[in-house]
Design brief:
323 residues; mainly alpha; two-stranded antiparallel sheet; globular
Length: 323
């Protein structure tokens, strides 16, 4: 009979190997159980930001809602409860509805043109090989200008005496009168607001384009020779999350952040100039001393923005694919 020795198992031959194989699992399980030892430490990290949000957002919001139900003395000597009278006066006012209509048109124009031009410049900048840094710096530098300064520069562009845009318009037979003519002033407001917001959209769109993998671009180039079709079928779906984010930001910008531009362009001008809802809140509250009415208008504007944001997330986000 021939003796055949039994083969040792891998665990017997390499006992350290099995131990090492178990270590990553133990480390992973331990890493998942890592927590802050004091339970209050995360809240202490969040406390400064929460304090800022409470002081500059929640507290003024509650005060605005409370003031909207009263007619308050501008000097603070008393207030009278009027219920929803301030809301009805605003919603059934022909002037307020006209301003709301202009605000909607203004928001759509600023959002569409800002996104479209920012995307176009980002696509062109992504294709630049030489001098790309200088090209991007020139486009981004406008974002450093504050809205009131942008409005002042815009008024210089559209000035009746030295404005280059007025001279260009007169060459085509358009006698532009910004600050006097309603349509001309609205055109200047949209133009300056779009010009101010383009660099912001450009930065995000360019970052999104540069994050598209080269392999995806090469595969798309092999499958489709048409550059326009290749962009809308391959590149644009990958930019959809960025575009959705910018859509919300641009709507908010057009409704609120254009206040400085509008204030500079229509201040001390004729009374028939177009204004937006947020500027009317300022006029009624700080110039007309109608604290209750301006508070009601601010609450209405806040509700409108909330509804628009919910609709965007409800209907548009379904078409967005992340990852």
């Amino acid at each position: 009979m021939t003796y055949v020795p039994s083969q040792p198992s891998a665990t017997q031959v390499l006992p350290g190997l099995a131990a090492k194989a178990k270590k990553p699992v133990v480390a992973t399980e331990t890493a998942k159980r890592v927590q802050f030892s004091p339970s209050l430490l995360p809240y202490l990290f969040l406390a400064p930001q929460l304090l800022v949000i409470f002081v500059f957002f929640y507290w003024p919001s509650v005060q605005a809602v409370q003031s909207s139900f009263y007619i308050e003395d501008p000097f603070g000597f008393g207030s009278t409860f009027v219920g929803f009278s301030n809301y009805s006066d605003a919603l059934f006012s022909a002037e307020y509805l006209s301003i709301a209509k202009f605000t909607g048109i203004f928001t759509i124009l600023v959002t569409v043109f800002s996104l479209a031009i920012g995307l176009l410049l980002a696509v062109k900048a992504d294709a630049v090989i030489r001098g790309s840094s200088a090209y991007k710096t020139l486009l981004i530098s406008v974002y450093a200008i504050a809205p009131p300064v942008a409005g002042l520069i815009g008024m210089m562009f559209f000035d009746q005496h030295i404005g280059p845009f007025v001279k260009i318009a007169s060459f085509f037979g358009w006698h532009m009168q910004v600050g006097v003519n309603y349509f001309d002033t609205a055109f200047a407001m949209v133009f300056v607001s779009v010009w101010k917001q383009i660099p912001y959209n450009f930065i995000f769109f360019l970052s999104g384009l540069q994050s598209v993998p080269v392999s995806v671009r090469e595969a798309a180039y092999l499958d489709c020779r048409s550059g326009v079709r290749r962009f809308w079928t391959v590149i644009m779906p990958l930019l959809a999350p960025t575009a959705f984010f910018l859509l919300i930001i641009n709507v908010t910008y057009a409704l609120f952040d254009t206040f400085g531009i509008i204030d500079v362009m229509v201040k001390d001008k004729a009374a028939n100039n177009p204004i937006t809802l947020v500027y009317k809140v300022f006029l009624d509250g700080f110039r007309g001393n109608d604290i209750g009415g301006s508070s009601a208008q601010s609450v209405i504007l806040m509700v409108v923005v909330f509804v628009l944001t919910v609709m965007q997330f409800r209907f548009l986000e379904k078409r967005i694919h992340y990852g």
